[in-house]
Hints:
The chain is built from 13 helices and no strands. By secondary structure, it is mostly helical. It has helices at residues 20-37, 49-62, 66-72, 75-95, 99-106, 111-117, 120-133, 137-143, 147-169, 180-192, 195-206, 213-216, 226-260. Helix 1 packs antiparallel against helix 2 (49-62), helix 7 (120-133) runs antiparallel to helix 9 and helix 10 (180-192) runs antiparallel to helix 13 (226-260). The chain has one domain.
Amino acid sequence: MQFWCSFTNTAWDWQWRPFPGVWLFVLLVGWAAFRLNRAGGGEPRPIHPLTLVGVLLTWIALDWPVGALGAGYLASVHMAQFLLLGLLVPAALLGGLRPEAQVAVAQSATGTWIERLTRPVTALILFNVIVLLTHLPPIVDWLMPTQLGSMAIDLLWFAAGLIFWYPLLTTAPARPKFVPPLRMLYLVVGLMFSPVMFGLVGFMLYAEHPLYGLYELAPPFAGWTSKMDHELAAVMMSVTGALVAFIGLSTIFFKWSKTDA
């Protein structure tokens, strides 16, 4: 039994396998969300639906079969994991965080560090640096064959996503200078026209050989070539990043227009 999904160099057979480390992490995420939901005082409220979506997507991204396929078979599934853990899951979890809980987090012992790490410019830099490092072929090919390395990449994506979305989706600490036009620019630079994501997409689409040796040399997947797999991964990163940014831009713009009306 493996603790965490990782490269095994065995043919894929669709046989279910348990990953207790994944279950433990999902339970911890759910427990933390429940505790935060009770923070800040006031009457206890049901957990926000977005929080439940975030916990569910965390489980889908990490457990069998997505976690196992992404860990050592298909770069496109590995990309799906990044999009879930780095973009959708953090947005859902933070979107479900009550204002009282946000204030409690900001006033906690770690509040100062959270405020520093999630300043918009800092958050944008950290997010892009983590995305770049965790997608560099030497690092991916070095870390993914081990359970610890695979887990490290997954957790780095999760942390990067929380840092990226925190300035946009929370109101505490207050950021009066982070006005709607700057929030929209933040999304554009971070997702829609990110130089890091654009560069990775270009390499995966137009490189003469597949970018990642681990997925190129993985046991063959029926009817699917490594080149096709890498190209799909590139399209997924480009389209999903742009779509998430567009939704965010539209939401910010319409809220801004109602405020000024």
